Amino acid sequence: QVQVVESGGGLVQPGGSLRLSCAASGSNFVIYDMEWYRQAPGKQRELVAAIDSGGVTNYADVGKGRFTISRDNAKNTVYLQMNSLKPEDTAVYYCRIVAGTTIRRYQYWGQGTQVTVSS
Description:
The structure is a single chain. The chain is mainly β. The chain is built from no helices and eleven strands. The strands form two sheets. Strands 2, 4, 5, 6, 9, 10 and 11 form a seven-stranded mixed β-sheet that branches. It has a four-stranded antiparallel β-sheet with strand order 1-3-8-7, with no helix packed on it.
């Protein structure tokens, strides 16, 4: 079993920055993909950014040029640096971890962290 905990959300003014963190813990697992999603009120959850075990990144249009995803494999942690934040970035941000063994992989979600962009 893997536990996933996000942190770093909060209230920020438009144009500001936030850095989200997501730490995975447990035993006897290997982390493959690490991803950030977000869900705004009344909208579906959407992918924001992803990074695989080799460090290859992928960004949805919502974050291109403003968001940067990175990971620290020694800490089993993924980060999302968000710059030039806009009110439309307001959402609950979730971390999804794909982890397991070479035989079977599972997905694990965190509880989410609220990001509010407002003046």
